[in-house]
Amino acid sequence: MALIKQIRQRTGLAIGVIAVGLIFFLVGGDILGPNSMILGSGRNTVGEIAGEDISYEEYVQKIEETKLRFQQNTGRNPSESELSSIRDQAWQALIVERIFAAQYEELGMQVSDEELVDMVQGKNIIGQLRNQLTNPQTGEFDREQLITFLQSLENADPQQQAFWAQQEKMFADSRLRIKYDNMLAVSEYATTAEARLQHQAANTIADVRHIHIPYYSVADSLVQVSDQDIRSYISDNQERFKVGESRGLRYVRFPLHPSAEDSAATLEQINGLIAELRETNNDSAFVVRNSEAQNPFVRINPGDPLPQNLTNNVENPEPGEVYGPFLSNTSSYVAYKITDRFEGDPRMRASHILLSTEGMSDEAKEQVRQQAQDVLDEVNETGNFEVAAAQYGQDATSQRGGDLGWFYRDDFVTEFADAVFEANTTGVINRLVETEYGFHIIKVTELQETLTRKVAVLELDLIASDVTRNDVFRNADFFAANSSNPATFTSNAEKEGYNVLTATNVGPTSRSLNNMSGAREIVRWAFNDASVGKVSDVFELDDAYVVALLASKTEEGDGSINNPEIKAQATLELRNDKKAAYIKGKIDGLETFEAIKEVFPDATIGSTPDLRLNASTLPGVGFAPKAIGAIFGLEESGEKTAPIQEDIGVIVAELNSKIPAPEIADYTRYQNEITNNASQRTSYMIMMAMEELAGVKDYRYKFF
């Protein structure tokens, strides 16, 4: 009886234990996982903005809102890489909400009801909405669609109404941010003194000789670098050697290469589809339905080439014929059918050199006209249009020799288009063409082409089958199961002939290891679950299985000699410092570059006749801002700089001559240039400053 009594007394406890066990069994993953609220609220925090914790749930809700907008805009679900971008957009949206809302309120900024109505149904429909409501036939914004949609909202389901309310809020928030950025952007101003300095930097020219003694001219054995030297160097330069939290990994990659059987099966499948493509009357619908190409039905505009894989294998492809299959360089089989060929609107190709006159007075424009005429005369004399474009051009095309590519007449302003399309031969047009942007020097590089083609692209990816994947997985799983520590990991890899790869300085938000993309789960494992020396289970990537070993762990803080990367960097810098001192000692008292070259045969002597003050590199030498600054500090012909230490070696320069920038009457162009450059950076700089002031902390890597 006493035993029965004890059992009865403990029944409540037993039931409680069983109940708790069942709860842990059912939801233990959530309770004990990274999102657990029982084990501390910090485990449910994805970041901190302006001193306020951002919960996992709030962040996920923002992700879903952003994802829904993506689906509404594109009509499809995002890919994995797009989902990563959506997560970043959601995080940025939370930052903007927390940081900028207070700024808007303090400044009294708002979007009125009238302004919002104008944005979504008035004369100034915003871009986001215009892009969502386009006529599929014309590709243009369709106001009738918008009217129909707005009229249907009153009777729409609650989810649709809630989505529209969310869209309107997003439009208003976006307009507030534009107002805020514009308010600061238009406050940018450049003084005449700043513009004069900009002009002088761009137009002060030196003719200079120089000698470059690279560090490899001095053998490493001639300079001694001890560990104590390195420790002291790191300590003295700690601001440059601060480290963030990172991990070091070693891993074996088991690639998912398709087998010969996989290739034969894919080839058989595409050959069957090719037979159907030859007979079908609706080529576009067929390839959209059956092809795995990103753009299965393409229009080749005049001047544009046919797909390279087609032209490499077929000399004169005929309409209606199917060519292929060919093996592409992206591991796929592809076939092509030219479904139509006709004469379309003409396109031409040209290059230009633009000398801008935007915002200038008539007097200043006249000076630019004369400068442009001088450039045109130089081009006609030398024939070096591309060189002149790189030197004088004032738009982005200058970096590619002024090339504008192929274009239709309507792609450019009337004056420019008329000049190009009236040309009957290729070559430089022997007159200046003035437009609202400035003066153009134009070179016609290709005459009119009108041939337009439509091409159906039938492509099937050559991928590993399930049978092949299973075979590869078994090998990876066997390796992981038998590699429990660094020693067995290394020995088993050597035994099986597997290549062990190393990834160092892996950050908490990394999504790849070296050039291996899609490795986010491996990185999360390294930061959340792994300890040094632990071997992972098998990770599945799109094109491989991976087994990883956590080799090292670095916490955020001061750099130290124990960090291999920091030690290597500090050693190199310290060794170069000592080599620079050695070089300077050896060339002290030598009067000529030839004498210096006798001491250091690896040195190179060169000359630059047109070095500009705003340059940062010496042609034939490399990045050398200190040397260039010293060169323009010289005054007399024949004067030499002291030996100057740069990252690339030691440089000594001799001035032949220096031509100061000429004084000009109007510096408006340079003021506009400074102001525009600053304005273009405003939005980014504001965001960076606000994040820093708000003390944004990002822990998302623990969850995603």
TrEMBL record:
Keywords: Cell inner membrane, Cell membrane, Chaperone, Isomerase, Membrane, Rotamase, Transmembrane, Transmembrane helix. Signal peptide: none annotated. It holds the Pfam family Rotamase_3. The keyword Cell inner membrane applies. InterPro entries: PPIase_dom_sf (IPR046357), PPIase_PpiC (IPR000297), PpiD_chaperone (IPR052029), Trigger_fact/SurA_dom_sf (IPR027304). The chain crosses the membrane at residues 12-33. GO terms for molecular function: peptidyl-prolyl cis-trans isomerase activity. GO terms for cellular component: plasma membrane. Residues 345-446 form the PpiC domain. It is a single-pass type II membrane protein. It is found in: Cell inner membrane. PANTHER family: PEPTIDYL-PROLYL CIS-TRANS ISOMERASE D (PTHR47529), PERIPLASMIC CHAPERONE PPID (PTHR47529:SF1). Belongs to the PpiD chaperone family. This is Periplasmic chaperone PpiD.
